[in-house]
Every structure is written in structure tokens, then in C-alpha cells.
Amino acid sequence: MHVRSLVPALLVLLPMPAAAQTLGQQQQEVWQTVRDCFDAVERKDQAALLDCFHEEYSFWWAEDVLPFGKDLVRRVAPVDMAGLQLVADDVRPARIVVKGDVAIVHWGLRRFTRGEGGVEVSFVERVSMTLLREDGRWRFLGGGGSPLIQNGSLPD
To answer: Within the chain, which residues score under 70 in pLDDT?
Structure first.
């Protein structure tokens, strides 16, 4: 499993297409939830990050054999956040659809982190996520994602 997709998080250093749509009020509310979750990663706030995920969360990263759930997020986030040396993130919505208490969000993420020995690691990925609003709070219910570029080139 690729933990960087869990700590789905978050300065524009290389060109990335602009948002594909103008966001209405409901779409802005949903997008703010996504941004708040990325901000939780930047602050290394595990409690706030875990609150982003519905208990029945399921995510299928393109390179994984099976999807994973919130239980894995709980176990991996503390370890991943402890070692995260975030240099910059750029996350942008491509499309947001809101129907009642369900939203589908597609976004692109470009992230630069500092790895072992001070080497900068970069990657670009696309994510599609379904959010569910319960008790007035949007949470990630499920989705999928795939890498586009890793360390300046397409993934193997």
C-alpha cells in the first residue's frame, strides 16, 4: 500500500491544469473539507486526519491488490506522519458533484517531500473520492487513485 495516498495531502512549483469548473457554494463546502484534511496532514494532526474518514471508508490505490479501510489509516498514519518531511503540496479540484448528502470529488495532487539523506521526492497522482455528509460533517467514504509521475517520470 502506498501510504502517501493516505496522507492524502498538499505550493505550486510545476505547472498543473487549473480547476476544470467554477465551484458553487455546495462544491466549495465539500472542497474545503478536502483542504482541511490536507491541512491536518501538514500540521501532523492525527486526530483531525482520522476524523476525515468515515468508519466504513474504503480506498483502492491503482497499484494495490485490494482496497484498504480506515483501520489501516489508523495504524499507518502515525508512522507516516512522523516521517513526513513535506516540502510543498499542490492539490486542485478537477470536478466536484454534490447530490444531497453525497459528493464525488476528482482532484490532482503534486507533492514534494524530503526523503532520506535530504533527497527530494516528487510525485503527481489523481484521486477520485466519494464523501458522505452525516450530522452536518463531510467525510471520505471511499474512492481510488493512481500515480501519474514519480520522481519526475512516469511510474513503472
So the answer is: 1-20, 79, 81, 83-84, 115-116, 119, 121, 149-156
So what's the pLDDT on residue 9? 33
User: What is the 3-class SS of 41-88, one letter each residue?
Assistant: HHHCCHHHHHCCEEEEEEEEECCCCCCEEHHHHHHHHHHHHHHCCEEE
- Tens of pLDDT, residue by residue over 121-141, are 677 889 999 999 999 999 999
**pTM for this prediction:** 0.77
Do residues 141 and 122 make contact, with C-beta atoms less than 8 angstroms apart? no
Q: Which residues of 29-51 are buried (b: 16+ CB within 10 A; e: fewer)?
A: ebbebbeebbbbbeebebeebee
Look-up of cell digits 458533484 = 97
DSSP-based three-state secondary structure for 107: strand
| Whether 13 contacts 110, CB under 8 Å | yes
| Residue that has been written with the C-alpha cell 526523503 in this structure | 115
CB atoms within 10 A of CB 129: 21
Segments in 69-148 forming alpha helices (H): 70-83
Closest by CA position to 85, among listed 4, 2, 25: 4
Terminal C-alpha separation, the chain:
15
